């Protein structure tokens, strides 16, 4: 594939084996990028790489547990060794917690959420800052739960709030190397992680349907915003946090009886 906004570029996507990550890998390849698909689910990563190849793109799959420092280093090494460098890093991998009130959150549950969502992404951010070529960009998947509290998933919200602080704090370090970092904060997304069937097909990005007000979004609708932030079209954006939530957090919900 060639002629797109990522023609000649190399991209790394974590959590690329399903959902938002899979859609981003497919779209990056459609726009000309060669893609490293990283996921703890090796079969999922291979499936994504296969979908890219079927569509005429180029991708390589790698199993990576982002909570491990060695795995973070290895997936960035692969991008450089296989494709000669790195221009875009979409640090999208993460896990959810079982919903429940604060008193049900165990220390083990909290530590696991922090180890993967916050520490693991921090390790990836460090690698991206060091590895991205000048003009490159990093995008981190946070969450609407990184902007407001989430009473039924406190540990998850803490981890995602941490990512918002990380991205804002890292902007200067990325700028010093001629690169950028931004975050997206999805609302409800229809992916396997949220109990919905995964969608492997990609729609024409200029013909995507509008989600319902405060409704659920598709993985591709989130991925398109990530691609924009990774592209040169977003050259003026650094250290920013973009909600992608169909107006979920735009206002207080209506109260019955108050019109």
From TrEMBL:
<dbReference type="Pfam" id="PF13561">
    <property type="entry name" value="adh_short_C2"/>
</dbReference>
<dbReference type="InterPro" id="IPR057326">
    <property type="entry name" value="KR_dom"/>
</dbReference>
<keyword id="KW-0560">Oxidoreductase</keyword>
<dbReference type="InterPro" id="IPR036291">
    <property type="entry name" value="NAD(P)-bd_dom_sf"/>
</dbReference>
<protein>
    <submittedName>
        <fullName>NAD(P)-dependent dehydrogenase (Short-subunit alcohol dehydrogenase family)</fullName>
    </submittedName>
</protein>
<dbReference type="InterPro" id="IPR020904">
    <property type="entry name" value="Sc_DH/Rdtase_CS"/>
</dbReference>
<dbReference type="GO" id="GO:0016491">
    <property type="term" value="F:oxidoreductase activity"/>
</dbReference>
<keyword id="KW-0520">NAD</keyword>
<feature type="domain" description="Ketoreductase">
    <location>
        <begin position="9"/>
        <end position="211"/>
    </location>
</feature>
<comment type="similarity">
    <text>Belongs to the short-chain dehydrogenases/reductases (SDR) family.</text>
</comment>
<dbReference type="InterPro" id="IPR002347">
    <property type="entry name" value="SDR_fam"/>
</dbReference>
């Amino acid at each position: 594939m060639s002629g797109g906004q990522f023609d000649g570029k190399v991209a790394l996507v974590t959590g690329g084996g399903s959902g938002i990550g899979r859609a981003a890998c497919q779209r990056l390849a459609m726009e000309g990028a060669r893609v490293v698909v990283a996921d703890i689910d090796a079969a999922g990563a291979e499936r994504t790489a296969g979908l890219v190849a079927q569509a005429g793109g180029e991708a390589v799959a790698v199993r990576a547990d982002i909570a491990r420092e060695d795995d973070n280093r290895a997936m960035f090494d692969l991008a450089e060794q296989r494709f000669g460098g790195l221009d875009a890093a979409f640090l999208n991998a993460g896990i959810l917690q079982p919903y429940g009130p604060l008193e049900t959150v165990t220390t083990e549950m909290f530590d696991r959420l922090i180890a993967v969502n916050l520490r693991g992404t921090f390790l990836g951010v460090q690698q991206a800052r060091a590895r991205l070529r000048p003009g490159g960009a990093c995008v981190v998947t946070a969450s609407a739960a990184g902007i407001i509290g989430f009473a039924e998933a406190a540990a998850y919200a803490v981890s995602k709030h941490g990512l918002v602080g990380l991205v804002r704090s890292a902007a200067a370090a990325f700028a010093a190397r001629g690169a950028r970092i931004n975050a997206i904060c999805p609302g409800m997304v229809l992916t396997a992680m949220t109990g919905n069937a995964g969608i492997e097909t990609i729609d024409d990005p200029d013909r995507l349907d509008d989600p319902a007000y405060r409704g659920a979004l598709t993985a591709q609708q989130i991925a398109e915003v990530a691609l924009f932030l990774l592209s040169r079209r977003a050259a003026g954006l650094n250290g920013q946090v973009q909600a992608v939530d169909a107006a979920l957090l735009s206002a207080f919900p209506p109260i019955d009886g108050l019109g």
